[in-house]
Amino acid sequence: MTQGTPPPPTNKVEALSPSDSNSGFKWWTKTLQYKTGLGMSQDDKNQYETILKLKKDKENCKSCVEHRDWMMKYSPMVIFMLDQINKSNGYVSKNKISCNICDTPKYGGFHPEFGIELCANYINGDKWILNDTLSHELIHWYDNTRFNVDWTDLKHHACSEIRAASLSGECAIMTEFSRQMGMMRFAKGHQTCVKRKAVLSVIGHPKCKDKQHAESVVNEVFRSCFNDTRPFEMIYR
Fold it and tell me: Where are the stretches annotated Disordered (predicted)?
C-alpha cells in the first residue's frame, strides 16, 4: 500500500447512486441477461457494469463512514492517537477524515492541510483494514503536530512512514509467528515488514527517483526512526 499525499478530499458519496429505473424487476432482468450474455449488447453490458460499480462504491463509502465513526469511539489505538494529538496541541475533527473513491491503489493518505483520506473502494468494507489504515494516518498526523515534519524532505517522509508502519499494527501479522519462531525471528520479521511498507510509500514521493532510491533513504534513517516509538513507551504489537 502506498501511503502518498492524497489530493484534496472530493466527498463523492452522494453522487454515487444508480438510476431508479434500474430497480426491481427490470434490474433483475438486466442482471440475468448480463450473467448469461443473452439479449444484451456491449453498450448495455458497459452501462450495467458502470451501474454495478457505482452501487458498490456507494456501499463501500457508507461502510467506510460507519467504520470510521465506530473506530473513533471504540478502537483503543485510534482513541489513544486522537488523545495524543490533542495533547500535542493538535485536533482531529471528523470532517477531516473523509471516505472517498480513490483512483490510485492505496488504503489511505495524510495531507497536512486537508487531513486524512480513507479509500473506501480499496478498503472494500474491511473494518480492520480501516482500523490499521486510520491508525497509520493518525501517526502521520501526530508526527506532523509534534515534530513539524517537512513532507517535501524525503528523509522526513521516510521516517514518518517507518514509524507509522511499525506502530500502527500493519505488521501485526508477524506476531502469529512469534509463538513458533521465538522473539528474535519475530523482531526481524517485523522490521522487514516495516521496511517494505516504508519503501512502497516513499516510492510515491515526488522527489524519489526509483525503488533503489527509496530503499537507500529508508535504510539511512531506519534505525533511529524505528527506535523512536513515541507516543508509545515501546512497540506493543
Answer: 1-21
* pLDDT averaged over every residue in the chain: 83
Catalytic entry in 117, 137, 161, 170: 137
CB 4 within 8 A of CB 205: yes
Query: How many domains does the structure of the chain reveal?
Result: 2
Q: Is there a domain that residue 227 lies in?
A: yes
What cell does 26 get?
427490470
Give the global pTM.
0.76
Respond yes or no: is residue 117 known to be catalytic.
no
Res. 236 pLDDT band, cuts 50 70 90:
low
Domain assignment of residue 232, yes or no:
yes
Cβ-count burial 58-80 (b if 16+ within 10 Å, e if not) = bebbebbbebbeebbeebebbee
Question: 221 lies in which domain range?
Answer: 149-237
Whole-number Å distance between alpha carbons of 138 and 129: 14
